[in-house]
Structure formats: structure tokens, C-alpha cells
Model the fold of this input.
Amino acid sequence: MENQETFLPIEKKKLQPNNFLNKQKTRKGQKIFLVCMLAIPIVNWLVFWLYVNLSSILLAFQIDIAGEMQWSLQNFETFWQHLTDKGNQLNISLKNTMLYFLSSALITMPLSLLVSYFLSKKILGYKFFRIVFYLPCIITPIILTSVYSQVLHPDGPLGILFSKINPNYPMNGPLRIHGSIVPTLTIIVYTVLTGIGGDMLIFSGAMSRIPTEVFESAKLDGCGPFREVVTIVVPLILSTISTKVVLLISGIFSASGPIMLLVTGEYQTSTIAFWIYNIVQEEGDYNLVATAGLCFTLVLIPLIILVRAVMDKISDVEY
Done:
């Protein structure tokens, strides 16, 4: 026994250097693996974002004079004039873009949350409704916009119905009214109807993680559907909701609808994305577009950081 007790510590001391070397090799291998994996997105960012956008940033501070690029702040003055002029295309585009963003945040997302909740309760025909709500995500937008236009046409089903209710129904349908916000609102209705399916999948996946015992306990306490959504479902999937909110904020200036397919950007339905496309396609003014992109980015970055910080503080829920 004495020999064994003296032998074991000696054997452990002999193995300690080898274990230390093995740990060093493992850590070195992990570092090499992490560097290799991180190198891919870093190189992608340097090439496809920094290199591309660096030239765009420089264009914002340059103007073309007699075929030569010269440094100037005139682009920012021109951008501000376009933005503040009520009759300008950029001013109209900004207002329409904000309407699309607000409809997504205040209408589409809450509706998707409610639809996901009731489908998670396995109401009568929930499988059928799940397919119906997700169909717009599968069918090509060309087909959907064509059907939507024909349905709203004065000779279409809804057009005939609305014509009987309101004799002043537009002759060319609500999508083709000059000098009115009605075409934009009509397209927003389309985006709401077709946008529920995508958010529904996200929220349904989050709700499926909530333990059934939570709902059973709430039912025993006499908790109704509305209170269940507000006090149980929303707090428990708040991390998913916060991610969705951050994504919405990050795309606030690119929010748009299928205006090219429905009205080809006419009837004051332009958005910022369409305005950028139109300026480049029709006028070729890359400097003004680069200035607009830089200004919108400078506004968006602190907003995203602020929203992310707020959502991270209120969405720390574990279950």
C-alpha cells in the first residue's frame, strides 16, 4: 500500500507536462479554426461592403464639372432641397416609405402574432388556414399582383361590389387615381395581406417552445385569450419580437411594396427604393443617390443601436 501511495503521485507528475502540451495544442487548433471561420465574413465585408460603399461615400462629396470630379458639398444642399420640397418626388417617396414601415410594424406584425396564437390553439380548420396564410409566400408576386389588380378593377368582383355601394368608385380602380394617397393605401393593404404568412412562421416557431403547462395553469386560473396573449405569450416570445423589431428598423428606409408590378411607380406611389432606381436609371445622378444613402445611413445607425439596446434590456426571458 505504501508503494502504491508513493507511486501514484510520481506517475501523475510525469503526465502533467504531456497534458499541458495537449491543452496548448487544442487551444491553438481552436484559435486557428476560429480565425479561419471569421476570415470568411470579414473578407466578404471588406470586399462587398467596404470596397463598394467606399466609392459611393466619396461620390457624395464630389460633383461633375466639365467632365471632372471636384470636391464639394453641393450634393447635400441638393438633397436637402429635394427632401424638404413638398412637391418633390423624394419628399413623396419618404412619406410613402414611412407608411409602409408603420403598416408593417403596427398592422402586419400584430396580426401575424394573433394569427399564430389562434393557430397554435389548434382551432377548427387550423391546418387549412395555415396553408392559406402561407400561400402568398409561395406564389410568385407577378401572379398575386395580377389577381389583386383584376379583383379591384371596376369589372372585377370587388370593383362591382364597391361600385354598387359607392357610385363614385374610380373608373380605373383605386390603384390609378392621380394626386391621391389612395393608390399607396391600396398597395399597403396588399402588403399586409401577403405579409402575414412570413411573420406567422416565425411567431409560431417561438410559441411552440412555450411549455403547455403554462397555458394549462393559466386556463385553471380563468385567464382569457386576450389576457393570455398579453401577459403570457408576448413576454415569453419577447426575444423573437425584439429581433423582428430590430430587423424592421434596419429596413425602415427600404420599406416598399410591389409598386413596379401594380402601377409601375406612377400615381404618387414612389418609395425611396424606387426613387433611387429612377434617379439612376433616368438621370444617372450617382452623386445625389450616394448622398441620400449616406444621410439615411447616418440617421439609421444610431437608431438601430438605441432600439437594440432597449430591446435587449426588456427581452431577457428564460423558460
In short: The longest strand covers residues 62-65.
